[in-house]
Write a structure and sequence with these properties.
By secondary structure, the protein is of the alpha+beta class. The chain is built from two helices and two strands; from the N terminus they run ββαα. The chain has one domain. It has a two-stranded antiparallel sheet with strand order 1-2.
Length: 58
C-alpha cells in the first residue's frame, strides 16, 4: 500500500454519548475536548476485584 497524502485522506468523525444523545467531539469546546481525550477506560480484566478472584479462586 502506498503512502497517502493528506489530500487523499478523509477525516474520521468521533462521536460520544452525552445526556442520552450521540454528539460529535469536534463540536465540543476546548475544555470538553481535553476532558474527553484524557479519559481512562475501565477494563474488568485488570481490575482489583478480578485479581482478587483469580488469586483466591482455588
Amino acid at each position: 500500500m502506498e503512502n497517502q497524502t493528506n489530500l487523499e485522506r478523509t477525516k474520521c468523525e468521533i462521536y460520544t454519548r452525552v445526556m442520552g444523545y450521540f454528539r460529535p467531539v469536534s463540536h465540543f469546546n476546548i475544555g470538553k475536548k481535553s476532558e474527553f481525550y484524557s479519559r481512562t477506560y475501565f477494563e474488568e480484566n485488570i481490575s482489583m476485584n478480578s485479581k482478587f478472584i483469580a488469586e483466591y479462586k482455588n
